[in-house]
Design brief:
It is a single chain. Helices cover 34% and strands 21% of the residues. Strands 1-2-3-4-5 form a five-stranded mixed sheet, with helices on both faces. It is built from five helices and five strands. The chain has helices at 19-29, 34-37, 45-59, 105-119, 134-142; strands at 9-11, 64-71, 74-83, 88-96, 124-127. The radius of gyration is 16 Å and the shape is globular. Helix 1 (19-29) crosses helix 3. It is α+β, with helices and mostly antiparallel strands and 159 residues long. The longest helix has 15 residues, at 45-59.
Amino acid sequence: SNVLDEDSLFFYDSKNEAYEEIEALALISGKYSRFRLDKNFKNNEYVRLYKKWIHNLLLKKEQVDIIVYKTNNKIIGFTSIEEKENLLFDIGLVAVNSGYRGKGIGAKLINYATRYAYLKGGGDIQVITQEKNVPALNLYEKCGFRISKVEYIYHFWNL
């Protein structure tokens, strides 16, 4: 079935959820990461960075919430939403298992996170991504986000 219902959305609970499933999805979410695409990173920095990122997100429970999408008791997608200062919320990582893409799961996760931030009194919600991550840009635009700022980040190497 192409229809996926909201009963499949949950907040991550470390006592009941498989950490490894979230970690694997976090690595998928970095497909277009500058740390993965920069050929000067040769020692698995991208994998180490994303594993550390998701580890830190899951430990910072007081500010970051992880929303998971489950089917057949397996996590197939997640997003993180973090409350920053001045009622600003930040959508961090968004990932959906490649076998389940195109079914609206990413949009459901983002829309759920947006409603959650609104109910917590949130004003603005931002999401930061790479220009080369066209699937993410399309998803965010579909969910009502617009580009507000473009920044160029460079890696300087002494090779």
